[in-house]
Structures are given as C-alpha cells and as structure tokens.
Amino acid sequence: MNYLLRIFALISISLFLIQCANQLPPPGGPIDNEPPEVLEVYPQNGTLNFSDDYFEFTFSEYIDKFSIMDALFISPEINRLEYDWSGTSVEVTFDDTLNENTTYTVSIGSNIQDLNNRNSLAKAVNFAFSTGSQLDVGEISGKVYDKDPNGVMIFAYMKKDSFDNPILVKPKNVSQVGENGEFWFLGLANGKYRIFAVKEENKNRIYNVGEDFYGAPFKEITLTDSSSKFEGLTFRLAKEDTLPPYMTNITMTDRNHILIEYSENIDSSKVSKDNFFIVDSINQKITNTKYFFQSNQNKPEYFITITDSLDQDGNYFVVARNIFDRSGNELETDSYQFVISSAPDTLSPSFKRIETGYDQNKLDYDNPTFKIFFSDGISSENLSEAISIKYKNKNNSFDLIKVDDAQYQINILNKLKPSRNLEFNINNEKIWDAVGNQLDSVNTINIETLSGREFSGVSGQISIQDTNKSIVVVLEGIDNRSQNYFTSMNSDKSFSLERILPGNYLIWCFIDSDKTGEFNFGSIEPFGFAEKFYTYPDTLKLRARWPVRDVLITD
After folding, report:
1. Which of 75-79, 456-460, 470-474, 547-551 is predicted least confidently?
2. Alpha-carbon distance 417 to 127, whole Å?
3. If one looks up domain 38-239 in CATH, what number appears?
4. Within 10 Å of residue 496's Cβ, how many Cβ atoms?
C-alpha cells in the first residue's frame, strides 16, 4: 500500500511540475478578441556598441511560443536561436558572433499569435541596433493593398554589382505587414533598393513562381545621407500563371457526350469543337467532334459531343490542340485516354435560363444585352429563326453571338425604354442536338427593363503629381453584388462613373504607362516595374439613386 502511495505522489508531483513548465494563460474570463502587443524590447531601438548574446521581448499577454519562430526576422541573419519563456516574456539567445560595426534590424512579425484566441499581432514591430558606434538610419515604409494583407512578407534587396533574384536568393532585409497592410524598414544602409511584397505559401523566404502572390515596386529607391527616408511605397498583389491548362479527367457520360475536366478554366473565345478529336489507337481511326460547350459555369468542366458511336473494341483518346487558359498560356497538344459508354443519348436539348446581369433578370434598356443557356450543344443553323423578341407587340431585331455551342449572347438592336416589358420566345422545334433529339415546345419568358432608379454613381477629382499622364480610375466591388468599373480621368482632372450597381466599393487610380487600360502588376523575373497607383482611403457604400460626389484621390 505504501508503495502505491509513493507512486501516486510521484505522479502528482510530476504532473504539477509539467503544468508549471507549460505556457498556460489564466483560465476563465471574457473571450479575448484583442490582438497582442509588444510592450518592451531589448536592446532598445538605436542602441550602439551592442555586445550581448540575447534579445528579450515582453508581450501584453501570453503568446503561442511556436508562432514566434516563424515571425522573428533578423537582418543580417543570425542562426541557432534558442527561446526561453517566462510568463509573457521571451529571451532569445544565440551563439553566433555578431559582425563588427554592423547595423542589425529585428522585426517581430504579425504572424505572432496570442495563446487564448489566436489573435495576431496588429502590426510588425521593428527596431535596429549597432555593434559599433554608428547606426545606419535609412528607412523605407509603405502599404500593401489587398483584401487580406496580414502576414505578407516584404523583401528588400540592396544592389551590389546587380540585384539578387528573389526566385533564387533570400533577402537580407525582411519585414512583415499587419492587418492594415503597412510595413516599415529601418536601419538600412545607403544604397539602391528593390522592394517586393510576397504572400508566401511555404515560408521559405524565396519567391515561388505560380505558388506565391507577389507585388512588384513602381520604382527603385536610393537612400543617401541627405535622403535617408522614403515613404509611400505601395503594392497590389497578383499571382503569376505560367502553366498551360491540361486535361485532368475524362468521362464518357453516354455514347455521344464526353465530359472533359481541366486543371483550370480555358479561354472559350479561342476554343471550339475544331480543337478536339477522338483517336482510336487500335483501329487507327479519327472521329471529329460536333459540339463543344462548358457544362458548369463555376468549374473547368467542358463537354464535347460526337454523332457516331465508337467501336467497343477500340482504344480511345481525346486529343486537344492549341488550348489557351485565360492568362494566355497555350498547350499545343494534349491527350487523355477514356473508357467508352454505350448508353444512348435520349435527352432532348432544352432551354435552361437567361442571364441579364441584374436582379430578377431585369434588362438594361440602355444596353439591352443578355445571354441564353441550353442544356446541350445545339445546332445554330436555325437558332435565329427559333427566337423572337416582342416589344410593344412588334418583333425586335437582334444580333446572335455564339459563346460556345450551348451559350449565346443576344444584343437587341432597337431602342428600349425604362420599365417596359419584352416577350422572349424560343421555338424548341427548330433546335436539335448532335443526334437529332429535339423538343416540340415553345418557351416564353417575360423580361422587364430597368426603371433607371436602380443605379448609383460616383464622381470626384484627382489631385496627384502625375495628372499630366494618362490615368485610369477603377471602382472595385468588394461584395458579391458589386462589379468593377473603369473610366479615364478627364482633362480637368475630374472623373465620373454613372449607372453603377449599389454595393460596397474601393476606388483607386493608376498611371496607365503602357496604354493598355489595365493595371500592370509588373514582374519579378524578368524584373518589370508595376504601374504606380493611388487609393482613396475609405470604402464607398453606394446606394441606388444616391450617387457619391466630391471624392478626392490624392497622393
């Protein structure tokens, strides 16, 4: 019995010691939604002749001790760090010998989280010290504009004979942005710098093409004794798409329909049935396709249809040629083997829906355009005859534009008025699929034009140094109902955007240096500058019939 009591006592003492050693916040209390703060750092910013072998940080609350390991950035790099926690403070020791007469910068990044509720540091904390009697005083600050900028890394490269390549070389100076997107470098030596923003996926401090989002600068920055600070370096993030689309799976759903799944959406404007054919490798036979269309507007899934049945003893491949994605990447030839189906195609093609782009499928009277969708690829030979659009009891003229073999755009040519009704009719007897299936019904849809009171607008002035250049204004929607709108700055430095759908928007402008009308994000390799942009600081809430005026975009 005494033996069991001694064992129990040892276990209890061990559990008590383990619990004391673990980093645990006090239990209970309200839910913690406040971000942690850095209350003290050692050494203090600006310290000279530093010779210790440790740093020390004190936080406002208990910190997840593992999060600091990925959020502590020291330039030049110091290796073999060890962390010793005591409550809300941590001592970071190192056995590396610091370089003589060198400025070091330390950044405590925003990836640090508290222990209670995983709240992240609101912004990075930076300080600099020197092992000598002088401190480099160069500073570069700015902001990353993104829906979720928290944790984006900022890489700084100083030019020697040339600039290092961020794809190959880690930066010597690193910082991190907080939830407001702002960043700040300090303790920089005089010289010329290229700064990049990188939203890393694998935290290796290298830019990984196609995996990481990047932001390129609009200029290089030169720091000198007389010009040691630069403010206002801004970034917008993009991801490079360098890979062409490729087939990931093929399913023959019946003997006339083949479903092709792609790695990404392809550019339907450059693709048709003529880009695909079926090869029987055993019988050396080629089967051409009849129709091509996207089966799901939200996924990269596409159908091709054929008219002839395939032989059961064949070995079949879909071959695709010259397939482009929406970034312009081309795969010249691709092939994928599939298993044939002998199930008959018994479904007749049917009219599915219209899309006008407005609530309740109301039609814009000023630009009466809408899309129509079918359940299958159809012959367009008699489609114009199958469609009639009546307005004021008269047939309206229209243009029919094929998007793919199951989707068409209709542009009404006659002028329309607000709050009027149109009657859209389609006679299914005049359309058929690849094997001749058809319906004998007529679909009728009543379409109402907008009243004109559904819209909002925004206007204002641009007051920046570069107003003598070509400037494009962007109204960027930030919720599901909003869209993006573009306009050019007027000669009097004003801008106006009308007929805007209600919603929440950001508004910004950029210098259209390449005259494309689209924002150029620049590139990392080969290096290319991004176009300079300026952002209005507040979100615009646009309501119907209540346009916002007097917006001022400044630098």
Report:
1. 75-79
2. 64
3. 2.60.40.1220
4. 13
Report the CATH fold assignment for 248-338. Immunoglobulin-like (2.60.40)
Fold match, 38-239 / 351-448:
yes
Taking Cα atoms as reference points, which of 108, 94, 110, 109 lies closest to residue 50? Answer: 94
Indicate the CATH number for domain 351-448: 2.60.40.1220
Give the pTM: 0.84
Task: Give the separation between CA 48 and CA 187, rounded to whole angstroms.
Answer: 12
Question: Measured between alpha carbons, how far is 535 from 552 in angstroms, rounded to an integer?
Answer: 10
Nearest to 339 by CA among 300, 305, 313: 313
Q: Which CATH number fits domain 456-554: 3.90.230.10, 2.102.10.10, 3.30.70.20, 2.60.40.1120?
A: 2.60.40.1120
Place of tokens 């009171």: 453
d(C-alpha 70, C-alpha 451), whole Å: 56
CA–CA separation, 210 vs 213, rounded Å? Answer: 8
Q: What residues form DSSP beta bridges with 495?
A: 460
Residue 439: closest CA among 349, 372, 376, 373:
349
Q: What dihedral angle (degrees, nearest 10) is formed by the CA atoms of 30, 33, 38, 40?
A: -20
Average pLDDT of the segment spanning 529-553:
96
SS3 content of the chain, % helix, strand, coil (to 5): 5, 45, 50
- b/e burial code for range 366-399 (CB count within 10 A of at least 16 → b): eebebebbbbbbbbeeebeebbbbebeeeebebe
Q: Helices H, strands E: what count in the chain?
A: 2, 40
Sheet containing strand 291-296, strands side by side:
247-254, 257-262, 301-305, 291-296
CA distance 391 to 410: 15
pLDDT single digits (tens) 86-119: 999 999 999 889 999 999 999 998 889 998 888 8
DSSP-based three-state secondary structure for 359:
helix
